[in-house]
Every structure is written in C-alpha cells, then in structure tokens.
UniProtKB/TrEMBL annotation:
Annotated gene: YIPF2
Low complexity compositional bias, start-end: 295-308
Family: Belongs to the YIP1 family.
Topological category with respect to the lipid bilayer: Multi-pass membrane protein
Record bears the keyword Membrane: yes
Organism of this sequence: Loxodonta africana (African elephant)
InterPro entries registered for this protein in UniProt: Yip1_dom (IPR006977), Yip5/YIPF1/YIPF2 (IPR039765)
The Yip1 domain, residue ranges: 100-273
Entry annotated with the keyword Transmembrane helix: yes
Segments passing through the bilayer: 119-142, 162-182, 203-221, 227-248, 255-279
Entry protein name: Protein YIPF
Keyword entries, A-Z: Membrane, Transmembrane, Transmembrane helix
BP term (GO), one: vesicle-mediated transport
Length: 314
C-alpha cells in the first residue's frame, strides 16, 4: 500500500508541475484512458508543443508516401504507356472528325488533342488501313477474274504483311524524322516551338483515317473514278497536316518552311500512289499476255528462195 500511495503521489506531482507550466492543459486519469506506462496522459491544445509536433510529422510522412505513389513510372514500364490509351469513344471520334474537316486557323493539336495525345486511335487506324488494303487488293483480282476467265486468281496473303510494314513504318518513322528536324531547327531558331514526338505521331495517325473509306471505294472498277477518290483523300489528309504544322514552321525561314511542308506533302502523295499502284493492279505481272511468236506455216509448204536484186538484174 505504501508503494501504491507513493506512485500516486508522484503522478499527482507530475500533473501539477505540467499544469503550472501550461494552465490551459487538461488531464485525463488512468481510469478514463490507460497508458502503456500507467501514467496520466496530458492532451495539449493548439498553443502547446506536445502532440502537435507529432501530428505534423505524421502528416508530412503521409504526404511523402502519397507523393511517392503518384510518381510517373519509367518509360520502360507498361504503366507509362497505359496513359496514352486512356481515351473514350467520343474523344477518338472528335479527333477523327477534326482530321477529316481541316480548316484554316483550326489547329488539330490545340482544339482536339489538348496536350493529351493518344496512341489508341493511331494504332487502330493503321491496323484497319493495312487490313483493308490487303483485303480490297485481293477482291480486285477476284472481281477481275469474274470479268475475264483467263485470269487465274490465287489469294495473296503476303499483301497483309506488306501493307502492315508500310503503314506502320510511315506512321512512326516519318513523324520521328519530322520531330528530329524540328528539334534541330529549334536550336537554330529560338522562337520555334515544335510539338512533342507523341503529338506528331498522333497527327500522322489520324491523318491516315481518310484513306480507309477511299480504299473501299477503289473497288469500283472505274479507273478515272478511283484516281478522283484518291486525289480527294490526299488533298484532305495533306491539307490537315499543313494546317497543323504551319503554326510551328512559320517561325522558321521561308525556305525551310516551304521545303519542310513540300516534303510532307510529297511523302504523303508517294504513300497514296504506292498503295494505289501496288494493291490495285488490274492484272498481276505473271498474268500479262505473252509476247507474240512467229506464226507457224502448214506442212509441205515450199519457200521460194529470194535472190538479191543485183543477181536477178544481171
């Protein structure tokens, strides 16, 4: 009992000293809340220094942990590229509509991408265009066989590979070269502010969408109509690229801007022309007509030798 009374006296003395130093403090007895050591717990208000520092440290630790969780993953991880596929159907349709209806002063990047480029639309546009090219190219030969039975049709599956490699290389390598050139020109012209690489890829990917319905229309077996559809698709796609790139290259010299935009349009035209000539041949090379041969004469036909004119005259 003496030891218990002495412990209680020490607790009371400790609480009294704390109350003398901080009159606004409140005490809670051991009956209200048990502490690990069995002492009286003292709760301080905002003016005190007890407990407040511990709360600040706990909040700073939580903030540090949250910041660590929200850090951007590295580009070699899957989570880094997952954000570029985080788009909904309305956004993709809006960007497709913007690529199909280019207007002067209506920047595709500023009005449609809004600093959020995606790879979902360009990836599936290129895949769809590659498959449509291969399928329609085979259908062209099949329809030609129905019109001309002498043509022997065989499925050409290699066109899928050729179309895929061509479209994807164009949609990635050309934007890479363009982005690299603009980065180099940025060092020459300080006011030049190029797009990012992903924005450039997104611009080129959506610009190819107009060729998907055009390739389907190329099934119409009318040559002049096919060339007309191809010219319209090329004009729409190339115009959209020029209008989108013009705000970037206009700060450069006139010669560099004209050369760059001309190269962009020329490469786009070469892509459309190459697809038209390779995938939509009327007859493959192995089915062309053989060269004319000498006509055979009937048997027992005697050929009279012809003498030179000088001999007959003499």
């Amino acid at each position: 009992m003496a030891a218990a009374d002495e412990l209680t006296f020490h607790e009371f003395q400790e609480a009294t000293d704390l109350l003398a130093k901080t009159p606004d403090a409140t005490t809670r007895s051991r009956n209200d809340q048990l502490t690990p050591q069995g002492h009286v717990a003292v709760a301080m208000d905002s003016g005190g220094s007890y407990g407040a520092e511990e709360e600040v440290e706990e909040e700073s630790d939580k903030a540090a942990l949250l910041q660590g969780e929200k850090q951007q993953p590295g580009f070699w991880t899957f989570g880094y590229y997952q954000s570029f596929f985080d788009v909904d159907t309305s956004q993709v349709l809006d960007r497709i509509k913007g690529s199909l209806l280019p207007r002067p002063g209506h920047n595709f990047v500023r009005h449609h991408l809004r600093s959020r480029p995606d790879l979902y639309g360009p990836f599936w546009i290129c895949a769809t265009l590659a498959f449509v090219l291969a399928i329609t190219g085979n259908l062209t030969l099949l329809l030609a066989q129905r019109r001309d039975p002498s043509i022997h049709y065989s499925p050409q599956f290699h066109k899928v590979t050729v179309a895929g490699i061509t479209i994807y290389c164009y949609a990635w390598l050309v934007p890479l070269a363009l982005w690299g050139f603009l980065q180099w020109r940025k060092g020459v012209r300080e006011r030049l502010g190029p797009y990012t690489f992903l924005e450039t890829v997104c611009i080129y990917g959506y610009s190819l969408f107009v060729f998907i319905p055009t390739v389907i229309l190329w099934l119409i077996p009318v040559p002049w109509l096919q060339w007309l559809f191809g010219a319209l698709a090329l004009a729409l796609s190339a115009t959209g690229l020029v209008f989108t790139l013009w705000p970037v290259v206009r700060e450069d010299t006139r010669l560099a801007a004209a050369a760059l935009l001309s190269t962009v349009v020329l490469l786009h035209a070469l892509l459309a022309l190459g697809c038209k000539l390779y995938f939509f041949q009327t007859l493959p090379p192995e089915h062309t007509a053989p060269p004319p041969q000498a006509t055979s004469l009937p048997p027992h036909t005697l050929l009279t030798p012809t003498l030179p004119q000088s001999i007959t005259a003499s």
